[in-house]
Amino acid sequence: MSGRKTTRRQFLEQAAGAAVSPVATAFLSSAKAQPGVPSRAASTEKPPTSWTRVSEHLALFHGPVNVGILLDGQDKALLIDCGDGRVQELLPSLGVQSVDRILFTHHHRDQACGAGRFTQKGAKLFVPATERPYFEKPELYWQDLKHRWNYYLFHPHRLMLVEGVPVAGECKEDQPIRWGPALIHVLATPGHTDGSVSFLVEVDGRRVIFCGDLMYDHGQLWELYSLQKGFRRGTRQISDYHGFMGAQWELKESLHRLQKATPHLLIPSHGRIIEKPAEAIEAVIRQMDICYDKYVSISALRHYFPELFEEFQGRPGHMPLRPGLPVPDCLRHIGTTWILVSQQKKAALVMDCGHPGIVQTLQEMQAKGELGPIEGLWITHYHNDHVGGVAEFQKTFDCPCIADEHLAAVLTQPMAWRLPCICPDPIRVHRPTKHGESWRWHEYKLTAFYYPGQTLYHDALLVEKDDLKMLFIGDSHTPAGIDDYCAQNRNWLGQNVGFDRCLALLEEIQPTHLFNCHVDLGFHFRPEDIRFMRANLAEREKLFGQLMPWDHPNYGMDESWVRAFPYEQKAKPGQSLSLQVVITNHSAKVQPSAVRVVLPTAWGGGTSHWTQASIPPKAEHGLRLQIPIPASVPPGRYVLPIDVRHGPWDLPQFAETIVQVQ
User: In what side-by-side order are the strands of the sheet with 374-378?
Assistant: First the structure.
């Protein structure tokens, strides 16, 4: 591109870019201790085990998850959840010769991945009624590509078993279960998952509730991304994608249900035995309310869906919405596409192409003389409503595609990533740009920026001419604030990461106009608005840090802090599979990490060897694994869970990778 007349060939030659890095560099940026979690360095050594005698007939195994052990006074046991099965090693010392049955609070892998150890020896599994398919036939989830591509729904959650287990029965609301010396009541407690249940165990004169991951400790939750869920207000309903903490209202109702049951003790799947349940529950609800208020106070959703947040209107500490600005004559807006038009031959630079119909509209505009040659395509982010028409665009128009290098890594290799709203079709990116890279296009100066706002893989384009400084920010802002309504988009908290990094850039370049792809007007943030939002994010880092037990809240908000790269790949029997497990160390100190892959039954079962690394603070690092595929493996789509140890945390089957054996 040039300030002088530019041929399409010259444009293409100037648009030649550097090669795309297969792993996008992570830009990170404070800390707190984990109560009730043993402190040990991650290693390949077998972690120590501990247990607590709750009463004569009730014990608790402290493994990756807490496992309840109900004893019949002879040689049988009933388990509540089983984790990775490690509890089996403790049972002989308690006089247990066999496990009669296992009751599960919810379907997540960390609760149930060891179930096969027990069913092989005759144990019967009883699961939440509505989650039975996720235990018996999880392959229906993994084989259904609606959970893989272009997805906006996160229920059921991907942290489910990869191979089915036999189910003997269901746990239904208010169902009494008599076993040995105990009476167990099933309580429906949705929130962490839609079908979660809790178990009120009455034994030895005590009332003990096993509540799964409904809460973690006094005033704390285990993580937040499982609460991503759509919700309704009046006639207006939004999908999971827009529902940050959207399951909180179900969760609160469930917590109140636990309070009404007046237990002596509350035992979560992760965390300590809670000796003052009522106080702990009230503290959780209070902290959630504080955090959610901080979130809403600068949420972009107040612009899109004001009726969903009417109860928050007029609250002190909430940023007022900014007025719209007229659109300069050099711009056109169609769907989620902005078009920059040059005075020279009405040449056009197109920003995003979310639907094939946009291509037809562009051709019609050309036929009417409203547009001249299409000379470039800038992509703001990878979501399907912004790139769904790019394939048709690239067939139709002979011009380069330009995007930030972090985003280009996703666009060019979509199979390698698991992210919301991602399309399966690779996109040709001719010019991956670096942060701050500038060039001329006709009468405009263009500058590309890495802009990790709505998603971690996002960019922005500054267009300057005379007094105009127009910043095209994709979906990262509306006049109401910031678009951080989907935790799965990887919206990090911390100084100079995520939206704080974006807002610092706004302070630096001081654009006259901001343009969102879904908003047909421009808008502008004043310096005081930017300061307000940055202060909000800094306070939010502390408040969300108090809500969760991790040493930084990003662990509980960034579902992909452990991810397989590539997430999905094709292979043949007899080949060696190469894989990186990429860990984002959100901590402020070096963390030892170790990973291994759990092999499918059809591959012979077992696990790979552990791979270890010490990961610097605020950095992303890939741990490489080589996994041989047996020559006898039949064709199919296989899901391989990944065991993770990071710092003091022991996380069985915490992530997964997919292999299509051809």
Answer: 331-334, 337-341, 348-351, 374-378, 401-404, 431-433
